[in-house]
Amino acid sequence: MMSCECLDELCLTLGKGVLISCIAYSIYQLSCHIMEKRTIPKVMIRDKYVLITGCDFGFGESLARLLDSEGVHVFAACLTQKGADSLKKSCSSRLHTLCVDVTNSEQIQQALQDVNKSLPPGQGLWGIVSNAGILGNMGPAEWHNRDDYRKVLEVNTLGMIEVCSAFSRLVAMEQGRIVITASIISRCAVPCMAPYVTSKFAIAGFTEGFRREMNGWGVQVISIQPGAHKTNLIDKDIMRAGCRKVWDRQSQQTKDEYGENYYEKMLQSGIEVAYWTGCSSKQPVVNAYYRGLFSKHPKTVYTVGWDTWYVYLIPTFVLPSVVVDFMCVYILGLKPKGLKQDK
Ligand SMILES: NC(=O)c1ccc[n+]([C@@H]2O[C@H](COP(=O)([O-])OP(=O)(O)OC[C@H]3O[C@@H](n4cnc5c(N)ncnc54)[C@H](OP(=O)(O)O)[C@@H]3O)[C@@H](O)[C@H]2O)c1
Q: What is the pLDDT of residues 12-27, one digit of tens each?
């Protein structure tokens, strides 16, 4: 049997070990934080070329303007010619616009050729920001058909992956950065948004594996995970209209089994909560993109917005999942009326 002194000594040694590990971990975290704040000098940023997708509106457009104003050579890929023209009008002649629908492989290949032609000989891209994305419609998983999922996955997952893969060699030439936009929803799934949640979980998984592969080429891959920010993506009217379209095409039996109340609660919890807790400025996300591109030691993941903590991460990772599941049904009110007997 172990004597009391031996036990005391073991506890003391273990305690010291835990304390030393905590101190070492805190020093490591603090030094990462300090190093992350240091950015590449502005004069050096001006030599760099960066491609951004989804520049018609939102984060992509704001980032394109910011980088252009800092003297970076921007390839701004827009979905529409109208978006490209309007961006071009308000930026310097350095900014180069391209029309790229990320669901279209030919347009991606054409953009690759155009970028290659426009780059100075022997120079690659410092960065790609794979930002283009859509929300899709809200509604429980079973209300969506295969096309609903396909549409969102085509842009948010396959489009992002194809852009990153196509341009990765050009980034490897500069040992630069690939910034990929996921969402806080890629770590904490919310109900009634299955196509978006699925697409963002998939892109977060891709990003992690891709980061490890690209490390071998000296390229850093960074995941941006914003909470809700008031852009066109979460425009209340567009979201309501999309929801209504999905609801209207359900059978009478499905409508009866869920009930009008479920539909209303889903709109309230999905749209109003995002609005109420979301950030009204795009700047925090644009800053995270900037740091991902130009910090001397960028983080691998940037979570952006206070709501990421109190609405998503803390409930998901601190509370038992049974409590969170209960809250979704009984506090958000996502309780269907019940199955109809006469099936
Ligand atoms: N806003 C948020 O709360 C939030 C939170 C987490 C993550 N995000 C992510 O952040 C990224 C940017 O979103 P945002 O809030 O800036 O939304 P946004 O204002 O709607 O901007 C998205 C941009 O992507 C473009 N786009 C849509 N489909 C495209 C396609 N097939 N090919 C190329 N471009 C396409 C849009 O063009 P059109 O406008 O012409 O359609 C628009 O310019 C998205 O990946 C989104 O999932 C946003």
A: 888 888 888 888 888 8
Which CATH architecture best describes the domain 38-234+281-318?
3-Layer(aba) Sandwich (3.40)
Alpha carbons 325 and 191: distance in angstroms, whole number? 9
Nearest Cα residue to 53 out of 93, 91, 88, 84:
84
What secondary structure letter does DSSP report for 120?
A: P
> Rounded CA gap, 318 and 206, in Å?
26
Instruction: Choose the residue to mutate in 206, 231, 282, 283 for probing ligand 1, maximizing ligand atoms within 8 Å of C-beta.
Output: 231
The protein residue with its alpha carbon nearest to ligand 1, atom 17, reads 233
Structure token digits, residue 327: 């809250």
Give the tens place of pLDDT for each residue, 1-14: 567 788 888 888 88
**How much is the pTM?**
0.93
3-state secondary structure of 230: coil
Instruction: State the pLDDT at residue 3.
Output: 74
Q: Which amino acid is at 3?
A: S
- Inter-axis angle of helices 283-294 and 58-69, nearest 10: 60
Tokens for 330, please give them: 């009984």
pLDDT of 156 above 80: yes
